[in-house]
Design a protein that fits this description.
Keywords: Membrane, Transmembrane, Transmembrane helix. This protein has 162 residues and is an all-alpha fold. It is 77% helix and 0% strand.
């Protein structure tokens, strides 16, 4: 799955969870999910752009560096461990939300001066959880695509040194 389909879902999760005070920690975690998607795509874009300029015949140290950036071996393990940590933190926040719902509601009522409505708060909490889980599932599909197709994660026979 390409990033242009993944990023809007993550942004909807950030907005949906960030606006709701009950799901604010999940909105915060959604920002890290967004960073996990954007950073490898930036590296991938640099490599593809460097290859395109090199094939057009441009000669520059910047373009040579972009092309040689392909020779650096990027580890998939970092992204896999990051996703596992995000799943664990998301599950911990969801469990905390459900077990401490009344305390959380009292805390928000006292500090945010918001009159709570049990039904609407529970609805928004469940919708936020679904958005967060959907963003995690879509990110896993995106990384399966990236691990197979993107030049960032492909092994290169070139030298690591420029």
């Amino acid at each position: 799955m390409k990033a242009k389909y993944v990023i809007p879902i993550i942004i909807i999760s950030i907005i949906g969870n960030g606006v709701n005070l009950y799901n604010f920690p999940l909105g915060f975690l959604s920002i890290f999910i967004l960073l996990m998607v954007i950073l490898p795509n930036i590296f991938n874009g640099v490599i593809v752009y460097g290859r395109k300029m090199k094939s057009k015949g441009y000669k520059s140290i910047l373009i040579d560096t972009m092309v040689d950036f392909d020779a650096i071996n990027h580890s998939k393990i970092i992204y896999i461990v990051g996703l596992i940590l995000l799943y664990m933190l998301g599950a911990a926040f969801m469990i905390f939300q459900l077990t401490q719902f009344e305390y959380w509601q009292n805390f928000i009522t006292i500090n945010a001066n918001v009159l709570p409505s049990f039904v609407s708060n529970l609805f928004f909490m469940i919708v936020g959880d679904i958005l967060f889980l959907a963003s995690l599932v879509v990110v896993i599909m995106h990384f399966r695509y990236m691990f197979r197709e993107a030049p960032v994660f492909q092994k290169s026979n070139k030298s690591k040194y420029i």
